[in-house]
């Protein structure tokens, strides 16, 4: 019998890596391989029948070995092998299916033993390249398997909906390739070790995938078992999306104690959801005590409804952290007292680069506590304190503290009540911030005065600004000249959000003029700005020809039907770049001021457009 070259290679390599690759080969080449797997349904049999129509006798024993991997029952036939699972006699026909990945620990152990044997005993290849000692062979086999598993697992993560056959193929291929490399390099050589100290190993342990669920002791034993393996290299753990009860916490406790000296990143977000307060606090105490003394760079405690009690329950952990670079406390019910507790418990934020406090009820007093943390975080690059109910006084305190954070790249203060005073304080703080790339200041009640103060400062600083979001701040056309000058100076700007303001045609046209010179611009949002036909037309003309432009949002305005037609005509070649217009009101607000500024007739609109196009925006003031 003559096999195709591809199949011969597959079988030969399988002598090294075991039947795992062979099974993968069946799934991937079932239409072309003479050794093929086919599903045979019988009306009396429920299970699957794996039939090898052509199978040389020498491979009988090899296939028997395969049975230990897949727990299949073998029945001999005169023409070949039939494998069947007859667990039920009344089930309906269904296609053959095997879930190939991940391999069990037993499979991985057997593979290491197989490769150790092939490296240290006589064979065709070892006769050519020489054998390794048993100890050397075992060390290399373990290293080979570990690297191959990580590589294959990463491949499987990218295609989790498959049967795992491609991951298995990758796993076996990597093992075979590295095993041959070791043999070629020979014995007693440092080069025979395929894994150097710098070879990446599996460092992330993540149980957050899948549906949100409660876990108790028994499930925790199974779920966390990989963390108990000797010599594991885990430095990052993510327990998010799993609600730990007391039993599960006690299972995790000794594991975390054994790992804490190697851990660098810990994600405990959303890990006590739905638990009674007393139980939740006790679980937190167990985790905090177990991780006390670890030197973490990343800590996420978000989505736990902590409040002051929860924050203080984490006290043992927080007090021992002096190297934190990233801290996340989002949606945690951080009140004024809780914010003060955070400030008291964390001994040092000298190295802090990312601090997120989104969606809490911090208020002004809490903002004072947070501002003390910020003031001593001179390396802060990403600060988020959005939706935290901070008013004018707290906003001023936060903004003044931000003056020391000259390494800031991303600033998000959205959805607070800073007011004009907060805007002016922020403008003073940002005068020396040369590294800012993203600024999110929407819904802060800044008004014209606060926005003008900020625009005048940002015009001279933040040369690398890419995102500017100041939506919902009651900005009118009076602030447009200063705002346009600032925007025009940002040559790297990609996103601009001025939605839900009152710029109208006058302000829109002034800003549109400077947009023409911004070649990197990708998204512009001026929804709900009382814009009419003239402003919409000029804005559309300013962005439609940009090479990488993606979206213009002018929904919720007062553009006439003719104006809508004009805009759509401009985007005829790229309609996907124009956002929905389903909330546009062509009738608009028809008061005297509107008539004077924009007019309802085409003549007045064209006159306004002509006047404003001749208006020069001074970008050097």
3D structure, described in words:
The strands form three sheets. Strands 4-6-8-9-10-11-12-13-14-15-16-17-18 form a 13-stranded parallel sheet, with no helix packed on it. Strands 1-3-2 form a three-stranded antiparallel sheet, with helices on one face. A two-stranded parallel sheet has the order 5-7. The chain starts with a helix and ends in an 8-residue tail after the last helix. The protein is built from 23 helices and 18 strands. The model is unreliable at 1-97, 188-198 and 591-601 (pLDDT under 50). Helices cover 43% and strands 9% of the residues. 41% of the residues are buried. Helix 19 (504-515) crosses helix 23 (602-613). It is an alpha/beta fold. It is globular and about 85 Å long. Strand 8, helix 10 (277-291) and strand 9 form a beta-alpha-beta unit.
What's the helix and strand layout?
Elements: H1 5-17, H2 19-28, E1 49-52, H3 60-70, E2 73-76, E3 81-84, H4 105-120, H5 124-129, H6 134-158, H7 165-185, E4 204-206, E5 213-215, H8 217-223, E6 236-238, E7 242-244, H9 246-259, E8 265-267, H10 277-291, E9 298-300, H11 307-313, H12 315-319, E10 326-328, H13 336-345, E11 354-356, H14 363-375, E12 382-384, H15 392-402, E13 410-412, H16 419-429, E14 438-440, H17 447-460, E15 467-469, H18 480-488, E16 495-497, H19 504-515, E17 523-525, H20 533-543, E18 551-553, H21 561-570, H22 592-597, H23 602-613
Parallel strand pairs: 4-6, 5-7, 6-8, 8-9, 9-10, 10-11, 11-12, 12-13, 13-14, 14-15, 15-16, 16-17, 17-18
Antiparallel strand pairs: 1-3, 2-3
